[in-house]
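Subgroup meeting minutes
Present: P.N., E.W., G.H.
Scribe: E.W.

1. P.N. recapped why we're keeping a running log of single-chain structure predictions: easier to compare across weeks, and new members can see raw inputs and outputs side by side.
2. G.H. added today's entry (172 aa).
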Amino acid sequence: MLRQFIAGVGGIGLAVTLSQFPEYAQQYTQRLGGAVDELRVITEDFDRAAAESGLDRESALDRYEASTDSFLAERGDSMNRTFLRYEQLSSTLERIQGADPLQRLQSLPAYLDTDIGRRTLENYKPAVPVTMEGILYAGGGFILGYLVLSGLVRFCALPFRKRRSRDRIYRS
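Output recorded in log:
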């Protein structure tokens, strides 16, 4: 009875925890989409200004790099990093939007390693899972938590069960 209670509590705890992942993923995706949108504006503005001067992006960056003015050279490096970040975040956003629920869960460590992932976690607002995905995560979490804690309680109780069986044999 105690084992079932402890396993049930573990199941509920893991169900609640896993049911929050779809909401975290949704909040992360919103933040990521916002960052991509802003970087797109910066990138398109730079490309437009370069084109108006008869340059492509690489030629414009080369002019920054060739400058003897350290401020301009550093701005060129900064813009290059901005373009790289835009490409990386755009690619991540495409992968997330095309991923199924299991693929998103498998990618969780990548979300947490990014600056956006950390900020999402810092500002995360829990939500009640009313989507099918949230309910499936909650159900899976309950089953997994129940089985793990049930097995752990059984394992921890093994030394005590052997004593009871030996005690019964000696009493006979």
